[in-house]
């Protein structure tokens, strides 16, 4: 329905608004982003316009982008997160025209590629019609809490059609096996829901009559006679509680009882985590191109999952040890890492393993060297085939859960999940689409180095096939009021000449859940916990490596080593913007007088880097150090510390009343921020991305805008200034950071939720019809073979 501008702009403000629209229509650019529009409006406003600009601001702040097209302005108006409308204005009429997404994409394509001509037709991808089953969320605020809505939906289904869905639940319990052993219900004794209900009454009656010291063996025998097998609990009380939950779920279902019941069913003991690219190992791998937080995340998650699942299975009364396989690629040219070993046990665990499977080329030969994550696409199809066999061998069967990591791992997880019939969870870590401005629109300019045409298709396939997706923050899915989310950016976009995606992901599907990671608290703990810290000699020698030692791995010699350190650690990717921090620091005389800058990143010799982006950043570091003459106030450590040392370094920085800075232009999550917070080192972190949700601004940390150098240095410098007047300020940030990290970001919390999701989505997956599942699968299968594989293989030509 056509809308009028009056719905958005106050009558008194309308002339000003129309005038501004006419000005935009005359602008030189024909594609304007939100920032361009905001800046243009700021410049356009005169002082006496202020009072008529309120509703204009309200409207313009929601415009994500605008196109100038044949004398009209086409605006993408994001009226709520995850929800856009496309309006057409001409600066004269009050009516707001409306444009369909497809038309919008076509116009956008035409603006970028006028050469394509009127006869050109670009492939359209629209996945909307495959989302016609199951619950749909309504309110964007609820996106990211999918499990709650799924439970609500499933319990309502059970309440409304108890016979049908009660039977489904009964069948699910009856078929339930773990490691080939039948658990929960004996289908020969309990043959349907009616028999189940009556058996429940009898057994609960019996359990009520048992006293506390009745032996478990006796109880189990009785249970078996009634048709209840192992898996209900490890004590009389636990078994009784679980069976009550089942009874409640059948008789008066509610989302809470149903979730609690499913959470108690022992469904997960073997987990496979897929993380193909990079150097995946326990030592000497971090800080290398492509190998950063994802490796830390997966290793810590795997260790914590083993612990959680061991306890979870024990609570169910089963004597089963979990087994976890982290699958990555085997790299024969190992460069001092263990990347050439097929199997490696993860330290500190009983049964967590890194399983490495090589990439093979078309001739069937093993690829010996590391390959950038942007170039591994042609190897993944065969990798998935080979991995399937290896997993079956190691696990003596199928896993109970497959977790994909990053675009490549998610795609491989999709392949494995469909071949093996196992539930699949995706973790993006970071979707490249949001990291590189115009990576879709000007994809051809990026193609040679980045191959986004292949990667974005892999993302589309994997995110639409995953049974559930976990994200570290909610803005990863639906962004903030100002910026669109990483997943949200897949809703609609065009890669001119290649594809129009008019509906690439349904954000209102309940598959999305926010579960944040934690850190290894044996390594990252508060600097104040002196007894847990390393020996005094070790701390001293580490401090010397960081602040003094001059060798081939470090650079700079501090003129005034007693100044507090501004510390940062990251891979030297452009997006991490360490060079931005160096430049901002170099420009601020004031900050240089207050603090030293200490950076741990990459290597200091550009010739030792194999990655173009990294080598360019290394050269830029030197150029900036020279330009601002920073040799006496900056230390740059270009070597890997082992993880225990890395933990101690954060604490050493805190001992010296330093701060941690994370200056990334965009950070999907940012584990280093958590590491600093757990250590009690006050944090300054980028306002673009995950850190927005990690810290509460000006409470447990301070957000900075790394694109405005003065913002970054002004806030840090102001902090040091205030600290000299009020030493309690540093302590306050330090303590609040610790508290926030310990209460919100722990692996225990993460694993509890992840296991719960696996069980609830496992039941959901079982209960939906094969027809609903397979239509999406078939479509994605075509995309995989006809588009993805074809383009991926071209990389080898
Ligand atoms: N890291 C490290 N040495 C380096 C660079 C990074 O140990 O030279 C570690 C860092 O402590 C953190 C991880 O690598 O645990 C980086 O994770 P984050 O999420 O901050 O960024 P990512 O590299 O994944 O983009
Ligand atoms: C990848 C990133 O870029 C970081 O922002 C995350 O913290 C890391 O993975 C772990 O998920």
Describe this structure as you would to a colleague:
The chain has 797 residues and is α/β, with parallel strands linked by helices. The protein contains 28 helices and 26 strands. The chain has an eight-stranded mixed beta sheet, sandwiched between helices. A seven-stranded mixed beta sheet has the order 20-23-22-21-24-25-26, sandwiched between helices. Strands 1-6-5-4-3-2 form a six-stranded antiparallel beta sheet. Helix 13 links the parallel strand 14 and strand 15 (424-427). Helix 5 (146-160) packs across helix 6 (162-174) and helix 18 (536-547) crosses helix 22. It is globular. It starts with a strand and ends with a helix. 1,5-anhydro-D-arabino-hex-1-enitol (LCN) is lined by residues 293-294, 297, 429-430, 472, 667-671, 690.
Mean pLDDT: 95
Helix content: 40-55%
Shape: globular
Strand content: 5-15%
Hetero ligands? uridine-5'-diphosphate, 1,5-anhydro-D-arabino-hex-1-enitol
Instruction: Tell me the structural class.
Output: alpha/beta
Tell me the major beta sheet: 8 strands, mixed
Distance between the termini: 50 Å
Count every beta strand, where a strand is a DSSP E run of 2 or more residues.
Answer: 26
Low-confidence stretches: none
* Largest beta sheet: strand ordering: 12-13-11-10-14-15-16-19
Tally of DSSP helical segments: 28
Radius of gyration: 28 Å
Please render the helix and strand layout as text.
Blueprint: E1 3-4, H1 14-25, E2 31-33, H2 34-44, H3 54-60, E3 63-69, E4 72-80, E5 83-89, E6 95-98, H4 101-112, E7 123-126, H5 146-160, H6 162-174, E8 177-178, E9 181-182, H7 193-209, H8 216-226, H9 236-251, H10 255-264, E10 270-274, H11 293-315, E11 323-330, E12 343-345, E13 352-358, H12 380-395, E14 401-405, H13 406-420, E15 424-427, H14 432-435, H15 443-450, H16 452-465, E16 468-471, H17 475-478, E17 493-495, E18 499-503, E19 512-514, H18 536-547, E20 554-555, E21 565-569, H19 578-587, H20 589-594, E22 596-600, H21 612-627, E23 634-637, H22 643-655, E24 659-662, H23 671-679, E25 683-686, H24 691-694, E26 702-704, H25 709-725, H26 728-744, H27 747-767, H28 770-794
Helix pairs in contact: 5-6, 5-10, 5-27, 7-8, 7-9, 9-10, 11-27, 12-13, 13-16, 16-28, 18-22, 19-21, 19-25, 23-26
The structure holds uridine-5'-diphosphate and 1,5-anhydro-D-arabino-hex-1-enitol (LCN).
């Amino acid at each position: 329905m056509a809308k009028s501008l009056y719905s958005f702009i106050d009558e008194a403000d309308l002339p000003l608004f129309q005038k501004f629209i006419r000005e935009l229509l005359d602008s030189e650019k024909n594609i304007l982003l939100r920032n361009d529009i905001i800046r243009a409006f700021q410049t356009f406003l005169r002082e006496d316009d202020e009072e008529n600009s309120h509703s204009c601001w309200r409207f313009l702040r929601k415009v994500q982008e605008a196109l100038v097209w044949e004398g009209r302005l086409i605006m993408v108006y994001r009226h709520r997160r995850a929800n856009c409308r496309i309006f057409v204005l001409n600066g004269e009429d009050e009516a707001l025209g409306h444009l369909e997404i497809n038309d919008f994409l076509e116009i956008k394509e035409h603006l970028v590629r006028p050469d394509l001509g009127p006869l050109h037709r670009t492939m359209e991808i629209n996945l909307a019609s495959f989302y016609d089953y199951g619950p749909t969320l309504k309110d964007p605020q609820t996106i990211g809490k999918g499990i709650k809505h799924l439970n609500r939906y499933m319990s309502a289904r059970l309440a409304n059609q108890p016979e049908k869905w009660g039977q489904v639940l009964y069948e699910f319990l009856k078929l339930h096996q773990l490691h080939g052993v039948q658990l929960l219900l004996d289908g020969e004794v309990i043959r349907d829901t009616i028999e189940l209900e009556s058996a429940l009454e009898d057994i609960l009656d019996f359990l009520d009559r048992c006293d506390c010291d009745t032996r478990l063996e006796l109880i189990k025998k009785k249970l078996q006679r009634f048709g209840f097998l192992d898996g209900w609990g490890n004590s009389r009380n636990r078994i009784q509680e679980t069976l009550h939950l089942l009874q409640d779920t059948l008789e008066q279902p509610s989302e809470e009882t149903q979730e609690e019941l499913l959470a108690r069913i022992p469904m997960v003991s073997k987990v496979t985590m897929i993380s193909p690219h990079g150097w995946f190992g326990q030592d000497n791998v971090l800080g290398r191109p492509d190998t950063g937080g994802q490796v830390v995340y997966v290793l810590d998650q795997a260790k914590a999952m083993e612990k959680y699942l061991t306890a979870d299975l024990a609570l169910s009364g089963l004597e089963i040890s979990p087994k976890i396989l982290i699958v990555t690629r085997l790299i024969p040219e190992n460069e001092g890492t263990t990347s050439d070993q097929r199997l490696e046990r993860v330290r500190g665990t009983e049964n967590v393993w890194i399983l490495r499977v090589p990439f093979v080329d078309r001739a069937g030969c093993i690829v010996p060297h590391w390959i950038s994550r942007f170039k591994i696409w042609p190897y993944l199809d065969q990798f998935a085939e080979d991995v399937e066999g290896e997993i079956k061998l190691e696990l003596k069967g199928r896993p109970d859960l497959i977790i994909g990591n990053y675009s490549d791992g998610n795609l491989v997880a999709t392949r494995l999940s469909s071949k093996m019939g196992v539930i699949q969870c995706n973790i993006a870590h970071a979707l490249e689409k949001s990291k590189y401005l115009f990576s879709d629109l000007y994809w051809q300019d990026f193609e040679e180095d980045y191959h986004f045409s292949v990667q974005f298709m892999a993302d589309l396939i994997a995110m639409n096939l995953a049974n559930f997706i976990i994200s570290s923050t909610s803005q990863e899915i639906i962004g903030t009021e100002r910026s669109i989310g990483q997943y949200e950016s897949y809703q609609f976009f065009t890669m001119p000449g290649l594809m129009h995606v008019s509906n690439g992901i349904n954000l209102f599907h309940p598959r999305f859940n926010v579960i944040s990671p934690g850190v290894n608290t044996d390594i990252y703990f508060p600097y104040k916990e002196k007894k847990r810290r390393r020996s005094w000699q070790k701390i001293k020698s580490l401090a010397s490596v960081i602040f003094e030692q001059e060798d081939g791995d470090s650079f700079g010699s501090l003129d005034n080593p007693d100044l507090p350190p501004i510390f940062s650690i990251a891979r030297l990717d452009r997006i991490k913007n360490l060079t931005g921090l160096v430049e901002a620091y170099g420009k601020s005389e004031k900050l240089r007088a207050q603090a030293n800058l200490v950076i741990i990143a990459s290597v200091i010799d550009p010739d030792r880097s194999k990655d173009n982006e990294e080598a360019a950043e290394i050269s830029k570091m030197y150029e900036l150090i020279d330009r601002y003459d920073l040799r006496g106030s900056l230390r740059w450590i270009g070597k890997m510390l082992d993880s225990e040392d890395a933990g101690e370094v954060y604490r050493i920085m805190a001992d010296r009343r330093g701060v941690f800075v994370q200056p990334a232009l965009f950070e999907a999550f940012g584990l280093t921020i958590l590491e600093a917070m757990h250590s009690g080192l006050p944090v300054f972190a980028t306002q673009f991305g995950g850190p927005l949700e990690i810290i509460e601004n000006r409470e447990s940390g301070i957000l900075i805008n790394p694109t405005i150098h003065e913002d970054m240095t002004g806030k840090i410098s102001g902090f040091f200034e205030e600290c000299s007047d009020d030493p309690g300020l540093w302590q306050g940030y330090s303590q609040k950071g610790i508290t926030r990290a310990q209460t919100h970001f722990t692996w225990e919390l993460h694993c509890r939720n992840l296991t719960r999701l696996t069980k609830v989505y496992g039941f959901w997956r079982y209960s939906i019809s094969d027809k609903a599942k397979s239509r999406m699968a078939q479509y994605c299968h075509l995309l995989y073979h006809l588009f993805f594989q074809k383009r991926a293989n071209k990389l080898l030509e």
